[in-house]
Design a protein that fits this description.
- By secondary structure, the protein is α/β, with parallel strands linked by helices.
- The chain has two domains: 21-124 and 321-347, Rossmann fold (3-Layer(aba) Sandwich), CATH 3.40.50.2000; 130-306, Glycogen Phosphorylase B (Rossmann fold, 3-Layer(aba) Sandwich), CATH 3.40.50.
- The chain has helices at residues 25-31, 49-61, 82-94, 103-113, 159-169, 184-187, 196-207, 221-229, 245-253, 265-268, 293-306, 314-336; strands at residues 37-40, 66-70, 97-100, 118-119, 144-149, 176-183, 212-216, 233-235, 256-260, 272-274, 276-278, 286-291, 345-347.
- The strands form three sheets. Strands 7-6-5-8-9-10 form a six-stranded parallel beta sheet, with helices on both faces.
- β9 (256-260), α10 (265-268) and β10 (272-274) form a beta-alpha-beta unit.
- α5 crosses α11.
- The longest helix is centred in the C-terminal third of the chain and has 23 residues, at 314-336.
- Residues 29-122 form the Glycosyltransferase subfamily 4-like N-terminal domain.
- It holds the Pfam family Glyco_transf_4.
- Keywords: Glycosyltransferase, Transferase.
- This is Glycosyltransferase subfamily 4-like N-terminal domain-containing protein.
Length: 348
């Protein structure tokens, strides 16, 4: 059983993220009888390393094991990596068990902290029945659509260099076009995430017919699945990162992904890679500098020429999800030791 995420003290809209109250030592003190172990996935972005140390101490005081899934070795929402590194320096050594999504990330955990992490793949993102619906077949004359989604310009994204590179490569790919999506808050003056330089340049490229520009608010899940299925290629404009739920959704729907060679995207699911300059300061020995446009062009030409068919098999996804649950059960049982099965799990 998993406890519900307690709402914050202040009223917030249902769609808004809030720091999990479960990560507060006071919450653990008040609810220690309600759960058997704590499993942390995300949510500690706004928690200071000192407060995380207090949390760990509180869990120890109550005899509650800590399980940590290392999704991000480099937080895609933080421009400066120092805080996330410090947070991991508290959580990773303190965890009674570690999980992560790829062998590459597990090796990085081993190198940085001398800890072993169990590799458990990311489960499917698209749910049934959509997961099993056939993908629309291309017809003769259909354009080859490359998509770049700027979303709301989180810190780990730098979409303009890859957009410019794709626009330059389009003449080499007969029948290809470039679709660029940007959220309203990026394109509209006065909004917190407005980027005047990006907005101006995208409008220029649109006027020159180099790109097909779509400006909109956040997609619903169904709108996002429709969008991804409309693309032949989804190009991830990331400067840094580790793993990607977007990549998982594309894998579910059969959309080819071209990803940067930072992080462990190619370990996660089949995709094409483009290179960035090397820098030992980043999480996998790669930098946060602009892309190598030649390698991006090569990946685009490969996708255009070979049309990879990397779609998840729904039955395999179901088996995979069952296996993921089984591994979690085993990990929980191991850290709970003699505690009876069927306990309550606290997640954040």
């Amino acid at each position: 059983m998993r406890l519900a995420d307690p709402r914050p003290r202040a009223d917030v809209p249902d769609a808004q993220w809030w720091p999990p109250r479960m990560l507060e030592p006071g919450w653990v003190d008040a609810h220690a009888d309600d759960f058997d172990l704590m499993h942390v996935h995300f949510g500690f972005d706004a928690v200071s390393p000192a407060d995380l140390e207090d949390l760990v101490a509180c869990l120890r005081r109550h005899g509650k094991p800590l399980v940590l899934t290392v999704h991000d070795l480099r937080n895609p929402h933080q421009l400066d990596r120092a805080l996330h590194d410090a947070q991991l320096d508290v959580l990773v050594p303190a965890a009674d068990a570690l999980l992560t999504l790829t062998r590459g990330a597990a090796q990085q955990v081993r190198t940085r902290w001398g800890r072993e992490a169990t590799v458990v793949p990311h489960p499917h993102v698209v749910e049934e029945p959509r997961l099993s619906l056939p993908r629309r077949q291309r017809r003769p004359g259909d354009p080859f659509v490359v998509g770049v989604h700027a979303k709301s310009l989180r810190a780990g994204m730098d979409p303009l260099p890859v957009i410019e590179a794709v626009a330059e490569a389009l003449p080499l790919m007969p029948g290809a076009r470039l679709r660029v999506d940007a959220h309203t808050d990026v394109m509209t003056p006065g909004f917190a995430r407005h980027d005047e330089g990006l907005a101006t340049r995208l409008r220029e490229l649109e006027r020159r017919a180099d790109i097909e520009l779509h400006v909109h608010d956040y997609f619903t899940d169904d709108e996002l699945w429709d969008y991804l299925e409309s693309l032949d290629v989804s190009l991830l404009p990331y400067r840094f990162g580790t793993h990607s739920g977007w990549l998982e959704a594309c894998h579910d729907l059969g959309t080819t992904v071209i990803a940067p060679d930072c992080g462990y995207y190619a370990d996660q699911r089949p995709c094409l890679l483009y290179a960035v300059a090397h820098d030992s300061d980043s999480d996998s020995g790669r930098s946060e500098r602009p892309v190598a446009t030649g390698s991006l062009r090569d990946a685009l030409l490969t996708a255009h020429r070979e049309r990879p068919q990397w779609r998840a098999d729904p039955l395999e996804r179901a088996r995979e999800r069952a296996e993921i649950a089984r591994v979690h059960d085993e990990v929980y049982a191991a850290v709970l030791d003699t505690v009876a099965s069927g306990g309550v799990v606290c997640t954040s």
